[in-house]
Design a protein that fits this description.
The complex is a heterodimer of chains A (149) and B (212). Chain A is mainly beta and 149 residues long. Helix content of chain A is 3%, strand content 49%. Chain A contains one helix and eleven strands, in the order E-E-E-E-H-E-E-E-E-E-E-E. Chain A has a six-stranded mixed β-barrel with strand order 2-3-9-4-8-6. In chain A, strands 7-1-11-10 form a four-stranded antiparallel sheet, with no helix packed on it. The longest helix of chain A has 4 residues. By secondary structure, chain B is an alpha+beta fold. Chain B is built from nine helices and six strands. The chains are: A mainly beta (149), B alpha+beta (212). Strand 8 of chain A pairs antiparallel with strand 3 of chain B.
Chain lengths: 149, 212
């Protein structure tokens, strides 16, 4: 069942169950499945992060137009300065119920030349600025459901 | 030591009364004094350059002050170098953007990103693009940093999605920290790294590659 305002208008038009990894660096982080540049993957909902932040492993899989690059810069992620670029990419939020959202978002893509320790940043992030801020969302911890729309 | 002139700033010195030549004073005191003055210049007089000592006249050449416009950018640069978002915002408020060239907006966006002031970067790029619609770089900045745009809403559900997630939850303890490839809740392969897994299963749009 999706969420509506008291006047009946929809608050969320899609709902997807999330999982909480039990251990590791992403333990207890709300993790949902989605498509990033047509790659089926998982990402963590992180209202404290800017942009969509692609994991280094996913960054190696997606092909982006080098003419659409915006700056080589560094982001501090989990205590590590990561070099990368900002691109405009497509993501799709895939629902268990309701309507899928296809969006164009700014994303930080780590430079592939960097080497990271094993297991560093295994998943991507959906950050607030540039992504989550653009649609309504809610979390129901009882049913472990992420609502969006 | 050179005489100091009191102003509303506790650190100041009168530019016309310079320190005596090094050879007539304790080298240590000169070095300390110069270090203090340099810190004063950096903190209280942003946008200035150090005074140059002229050996022949035994005088320091008066420091060159940057224009108020340059001082604004100098403050932003300092905050960006320090990756200090709060300082960047403070400097941004003190900086007038009226009548600035497109190049200042482009630089400002870069500095904002360097400082971690991502919202400021977006605002500057948007304003720059509005003022200079013919500038390709500003239009590109604004386009990339703009908020997310919903391209389409498709009334489609993904049962394979739920099946993959149910598999992950059921098998987390057994496959923890391992990369797995799943299609419709079926395990296709497992490996210790994403590269190894890709070698096993290849790249496929319908296959979820993730670490448990």
């Amino acid at each position: 069942m999706l969420l509506n305002f008291t006047n009946g208008s929809p608050f969320a038009t899609g709902a997807v169950a999330y999982r909480l990894p039990q251990e590791g660096s992403d333990a207890s982080r709300i993790t949902i499945g989605l498509e990033i540049e047509e790659n089926l993957t998982e990402a963590i909902i992180d209202t404290g992060a800017p942009y969509v932040i692609c994991s280094p492993d996913l960054a190696k899989l997606i092909n982006l137009d080098p003419n659409e690059i915006l700056y080589a810069k560094k982001l501090l992620i989990r205590g590590v300065w990561i070099e990368g670029n900002i691109y405009r990419i497509n993501i799709s939020l895939l629902p268990d119920e309701g309507v899928a959202l296809l969006m164009e978002v700014p994303a930080f893509i780590p430079s592939p030349e960097q080497e990271f320790t094993e297991g560093f940043l295994p998943r991507s992030f959906l950050g607030m600025l540039g992504c989550l801020e653009s649609f309504t969302f809610a979390v129901d911890p009882v049913t472990e459901t992420f609502y969006f729309g | 030591m050179g005489k100091a002139e009191r102003t509303d700033c506790k650190h100041s010195y009168r530019p016309d009364e310079w320190l005596p030549p090094i050879e007539s004073r304790s080298a240590k005191r000169i070095v300390v004094t110069q270090a203090v003055l340099e810190s004063v210049r950096i903190i209280h007089r942003p946008g200035t350059v150090p005074a140059q000592y002229d050996v022949e006249s035994h005088k320091y050449i008066k420091r060159r002050l940057l224009s108020p416009v340059d001082i604004g950018m100098a403050r932003l640069e300092r905050a960006a170098r320090a990756a200090n978002e709060a300082s960047f915002f403070a400097a941004l408020k003190l900086t007038s953007w009226e009548k600035r060239p497109a190049s200042d907006f482009i630089s400002g966006v870069q500095l904002a990103l360097q400082a971690g002031a991502h919202l400021a970067a977006r605002h500057l790029s948007s304003e720059g693009a509005r003022l200079y619609p013919e500038n390709i770089e500003l239009q590109k900045q604004a386009r990339i940093l703009a908020p997310a745009r919903v391209v389409a809403r498709t009334p489609t559900t993904y049962p394979a999605h739920r099946a993959n997630r149910d598999w992950l939850k059921a098998n987390e303890s057994e496959y923890r920290d391992r990369w797995v490839a799943l299609r419709d809740g079926q395990l296709l392969g497992t490996a210790t790294s994403s590269e190894e897994l890709l070698d096993q299963v290849g790249k496929n749009k319908d296959v979820l590659l993730t670490v448990v």
